[in-house]
Amino acid sequence: MTILRALSLATLALSLALPLATGAQIYGDYIPQDSHKNNPVNVYFGAVKSKSGDYVEGATMVFATAMLDFVAVTDKRGRYRLELPVDISPSKVESRCSHPDYSSSQIRRRLPRAKALTPVEVDCTLS
Amino acid sequence: MSVYSTTSFHHGISSGPVKTLHWPAITLALCCIYLSCCTVTFADPLLLAAKNGNEDAQRAYAWQQLRDITQLDSKGMPVFTHWISELQTFSTNPENLSAPAFPGAPATTDGDRNPSGHGRHGGPLINFMHFNPAAWQHIRSHRLYDEKRLDALAQSANKRAIAIPAFPQAAKVLMTAWWPVRKEGGSPMPVWEPDGAHRHTGSNSYLNWQRVIAIKTAAEQHFDRVSFAGRVTQNPDAAELTSLFYLPVDSGLANRIMADPGFAQATHIAIGRPLQSGDYLALVGVHLMSKALPRGIWSTFWWQDEAPVDNPPRENVVSTPWNQYRMDTTFDTLIPAEKDASPNICFNPWFDATFPDSGEGNGLKANCMSCHLRASFPREEPLRITRGEPDILRDPAFGAGHVTTGMIWSIANTSRRGTTDD
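Output (structure tokens, whole complex):
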């Protein structure tokens, strides 16, 4: 039973992480060409909402590491998906969020369970 | 034909047979020498400035270059806005040859072209390439837009890379970077600070520039804060849009920008929504390469709200808004050397600061000329950041099966071939 529950949770997480087959994802999962070609990746995904609970389109999610900045923009459903190199530990990634129409943000991050490395869920609330 | 004759001119102290010079023949000979060497003669002051590493002379020339390309036409637009877009220059699709006017359509409109590498790491960049008529004519007449032609040239390079035919001295190529501004004003814009806190080896893309200002579209506007790239700046400095060169956006341009995934993402990062008719594109970065010298003269400009006092004063050369841009230039891969005697550095924060260290320093330690010397087809590690002289013996970009593309990566971007392990 526990195994089945774990599997269903993993399936749910993966379904959230995989790109949606809609045009709305055109910005949310834009990944610069050639990046991470043939390399394993760590998927970052999540959503940006306003304080009233509405999803925010066009919000910027920045994931800053010691060497690089990775950036995603939320789609029409307020969601984003991004791939980072798998060798960057999530604990060494600074997450930030903003939108020009909002003045503050709060980040919530959920790391993968147990020994899993991916995916990492980072959600943001703007106010 | 002898230039000597027995009449008219005597060598005063000659003890041998008296030789006299035949002036018409000398004149003809000098004309021949002049014509055969006219390229060198023409560029002599530039060669001297390059050879001596004369920074003042180089900077003065770079400002003159900017003045020349920003001369206004009868409609009040700079002459460079008549240059030919990347799409028109390289496309093999006849529909694209009559592409929209300046700044053109994104290069990726043609599915066979790679986007520029200058927005690859960190924040994406809205950038366009522009070719003056001499550069365009050279590329089209030598079919350098044609992958098959480049392939044939590359395959004939048995031992070392061969070069495309040399560009004429009049050829100029421009790369421009644009920042979206909302019509209602208050758009955030990051501003490069040379002495700011930067990553020493990593990327310094605009996403992590510490200073963010607000762009006003009306003088009386005031903004309490701007939010950008996950940070909020309270009571930001503000600059008027008119302090930059800018383009009004119509629906056609908005649609073209938003059709490119990278450009669309850059727009959302800047203004939080798609570009619309009535918005603006502000020119934040300019990279100009002139072929006046064989390796080109590289001048790069970026907008700054607080332009420093320059020597020689830029106000004597360029007027508003161009005097609001900072500039760096390089005539050589090595000189003038840096304070630590290392090779010359020349970079543009918008185009180059984003590059992380690939073994020889990050984008803040790059030299335009050194990186662009590596431009070859098929592409080899196009984002390897370097300065100084290239390693032509070990770098595959200069090896067999390659054709060097006159220091212009756009020619190599014609194909999706080549390594892209950047």
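Residues 4-36 of chain B form one domain.
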